[in-house]
Amino acid sequence: SLQVKWKGKDLFDLVCRTLGLRETWFFGLQYTxxxxxxxxxxxKKVLDHDVPTEEPVTFHFLAKFYPExxxxxxxxxxxxxxxxxxxKKQILDxxxxxxxxxxxxxxxxxxxxxxxxxxxxxxxxxxxxxEELLPKRVINLYQMTPEMWEERITAWxxxxxxxxxxxxxxxxxxxxxxxxMYGVNYFAIRNKKGTELLLGVxxxxxxxxxxxxxxxPKISFPWNEIRNIxxxxxxxxxxxxxxxxxxxxxxxxxxxxxKLILQxxxxxxxxxxxRRKADSLEVQQMKAQAREEKARKxxxxxxLAREKQMREEAERTRDELERRLMQLKEEATMxxxxxxxxxxxxxxxxxxxxxxxxxxxxLAQKAAEAEQEMQRIKATAIRTEEEKRLMExxxxxxxxxxxxxxxxxxxxxxxxxxxxxxxxxARxxxxxxxQKLLEITSKSSYTxxxxxxxxxxxxxxxxFNLINESLAFDFKDTDMKRLSMExxxxxxxxxxKSKHLQEQLNELKTEIEALKLKERETAxxxxxxxxxxxxxxxxxTIKKVS
Length: 546
Prior knowledge:
coiled coil; Ez/rad/moesin-like; actin binding; PH-domain like; seven-stranded antiparallel β-sheet; 3 domains; 10 strands
């Protein structure tokens, strides 16, 4: 509950302590009074402020000042996270203009921060259906379905594998800080001639814009070139350091707005000067702690990555052993079936050979009897021509029968020999099948434990106790110098990768250009495209107009 005597600083410190935030100089407590934004003053009692009379009074804890370079200035992870959430909301609410191709890239980093590494088995089609990732202006500008947008976001999301949440959020901020409207507070003003203009206040200085063009300032005053800023009632005065340059005067709509402008000018100017001096002892300590924490997290990620790799290898080995066991079982089953078929064939051939051999013996016996009958007939005296003729016919028939019987006997004998040979081959095949089965049985004996419901890994695979021991040793053996070299190497790799970033953005822009509905382009879209075609960026534009 809010104490009656509490000053703004008491309430602000309570929020910072609750969040564990130490980089307090970027933030403030914002409230709205009569459609005008105001910030709680640290040295003034909370209830003495001109706050709304309705209860409860709402204060928003927000970034009041922005860094020039997020990666160099934002030390704590909580600070980075708060900036990420605020900037993402401003982009989605279209308070910061973001071109379509950059919106897709930023969305992919937001997905990486929320979901971790892309896994096609988990992150299936439609997993981003409920997420708000792109400004409505971008979605309306193209004839593209939600599925088409998701496909393009996921393609980039898959490339961010290995980035932790804080790294993905920092990549988001590094891209967002180059957007023209990032960190700029705009105020409606009039110059001495009464011309309506916009004043922009940000980390780099003061900028004057046409009301219809918030992207490109007409003139800029960097903080290091401003000698004095003051206001009297509604008139505001900017005195440049170079006395040859005219003093710039303008009027704002309300006195309250002038106070706010002056607050933002003083705060941004102080931070601008602080960045160009040596870090305070507190900031040095925070940066040292952040480096140690980053090193610890990096080593923890490496340890987890190694454990994951070992686990995946163990699972692959187990799967391979299970597959091999199934293969051996199938081979054993096939060998058993082949053996049974061989035994059945051998039995049939043996039976057939015996029958054929008996038939051959019987035919041979009949042939012998026929020969004897022929000899007996020849020896018999023939008394008449008729008997002789009949006898000759009988002799001829007997000879034909004997010849036929001899041929049949010879054929049956050959068939018996062939069957004996087939039987021998069948028995040889049976012997080989038995030997094959014996080999398979002896091979599969070592995989016998795999038949249980949870297959055991072979004993030669390293256990996780052993993994833990080796990791503990690696952890002790790792020195900060080597880790620093690794971090430096990552920076170099990022620099090389960032060269291709603009090419990737241009590729996506070209790819979706055909689906653009030109009639839906906003004034800011047109202005951005004109700036891009001229090669103008946020920083070189400010240099030109300073």
